[in-house]
Amino acid sequence: MSAPLSLERVRRKVEAGETLSDAELALLRTEAQRSPGPSLRLALAHALVNAGAEREALPLLESLRRDFPRDVPVRLGLARALLGLERNGDAERLLTEVLAQSPGDPEVLKVLAVLGLRRGETDKARAYVADALARDPFDAEARLLKEELEAVELPPPVPREQVLRPEFTAALTAALGRARIAFRRQGKDLLVKLATGGVGRVDVGSLYAAYQESPGTQGLAAYADALAARLGGLSSGLSAEGQALEARLRPVLRPAGFAAKAVGALHRPGPAGLDVFYVLEDAEFVRYLPEAALAPAGLTLESADAAAWRNLSSNVAPVRPVLVDQGEVRLAEAFSGLWAVAEGDGHDAARLLLAPQRKALAQLAGDVPLRVSLGRRELAVVCRESDTEACASLARLMPSPDGIPGTFRLTEEGLSAG
After folding, report:
1. What is the rounded CA–CA span in Å between residue 24 and residue 92?
2. CA atoms lying within 13 Å on the CB side of residue 371
3. Do residues 328 and 243 make contact, with C-beta atoms less than 8 angstroms apart?
4. Residue spans of alpha helices (H) in 198-325
5. How would you classify the pairing of strands 189-193 and 199-203?
6. Angle ∠(398,401,407) on CA atoms, nearest 5
7. Of the candidates 417, 125, 106, the residue with the CA atom closest to the CA atom of residue 272
8. How large is the C-alpha radius of gyration of the chain?
9. Checking CA distances to 217, which of 29, 109, 184, 416 falls within 20 to 30 Å?
10. Cut 0.85: pTM above it
């Protein structure tokens, strides 16, 4: 019994893209020679590609294609080896044939996306990835490709000049003086005389944190002058800048203690021991809304919170049946007892607090208490609390590094600790 178990473990390592040890590779070679079908021979070829031995894998894959000319996994394996050897034209011709044979196959789409990335054809690659995710939004490899494409789109960060907090404070007070804006230090706060005659209170530490996190396109003096102008022009009304900022706000749930990782970010206590943070949808801005951005925009915590939830409530996420397979969430073809709130934009956990989203869940799961896992930041997985088997399956879903550990309880009263 030991050999089949060892072989299965080796195959799982190959599927995960890991490099085999010499002993594992030898075992796979031996078993592949004994097997008449393509499965183990193809696994051996993938193991060689994983180890960077595409030249050794190529003859094996070409032999497999002669023996199994219509087998899609075999042809995809050959395309992968050709890409590794930078024979992109040959790989593209082969992939075009496979796509014609199996239209919309997510595995083909992902390899085509990799080819597009290699060639710098990001629009093509983005379309292939979007198509693959539309067919399976839980495809981990497609999600990684999407993240890689998003990283390609972002301009390289401009290094921010190293400025200590005392330097920042001195530059800001000098800028306020140049702008003839009356101000006074009071502890860690800055009291500023507003254009309307009132006095605004701003946390200098939050201003400094926002400066450190901002894009490094301005020098300190220019940044301080612009900040002084904004501080001096505050009023009790909401500026056009504030209105624009309101429209981009969305709430997210984060575990207790997350504030230590997002210093200066606006947040408030949420349900079940979690905290509510606020993010901006515009990728050009700081993702987490700095607390220091409230006053310059004429916002308060209460108005920012209300705007964030109002914006989120306009988009009810789809609810899809799923299953947990080897610790990963996958779409289920039939009833499994598990569902996912799966817009995939990072706000699905927060959507559970909205009545329209709970109504969409109740249409499938029933108006009953639900058990919830927030272990994946990109989705929320739920099951009926009364379904013992589904609850056990949910408990096997290990949280990702950026997920929230543990399980929770969702009722009509809201989210609570599980």
Report:
1. 32
2. 19
3. no
4. 204-213, 220-232, 240-248, 301-313
5. antiparallel
6. 40
7. 417
8. 27
9. 184
10. no
Nearest-angstrom CA–CA distance, 361 and 199:
47
Q: How far is CA 53 from the centre of its chain?
A: 32
Q: Which helix (H) or strand (E) holds 356?
A: helix 355-365
How many whole angstroms separate alpha carbon 199 and alpha carbon 387? Answer: 57
For residue 199, give the amino acid letter.
V
How far apart, in whole angstroms, are the C-alpha atoms of residue 181 and residue 225?
11
Cβ contact 208:223 at 8 Å: no
**Tokens standing for 263?**
């210093």
Strand order of the sheet with strand 199-203? Answer: 183-186, 189-193, 199-203
List 404's β-bridge partners, or say none: 374
- Structural element, H or E, at residue 46: helix 39-50
Partners of 199 in the β-ladder = 193
User: pLDDT tens, 194-247?
Assistant: 655 556 667 787 778 777 766 565 678 887 887 777 776 554 344 555 677 788
* Residue 200 DSSP SS3: strand
DSSP code of 272? G
Whole-Å CA distances, 126 to 106, 146, 264: 13, 7, 34
DSSP 8-state code for residue 340: E
The pair of structure tokens assigned to 164 is 């200590």
Residue 163 burial class via C-beta count within 10 angstroms: exposed 0-12, middle 13-18, buried 19 and up: middle
> 57: which 2 tokens?
């894998």
Give kind and range of the element (H or E) at residue 111: helix 106-119
Can you name the residues that pair with 325 across neighbouring β-strands? Answer: 328
Work out the number of other CB atoms within 10 angstroms of the CB of residue 153. Answer: 9
Q: Domains, the chain, ranges and CATH? A: 2-153 (1.25.40.10), 156-236 (no CATH), 238-313 (no CATH), 319-417 (no CATH)
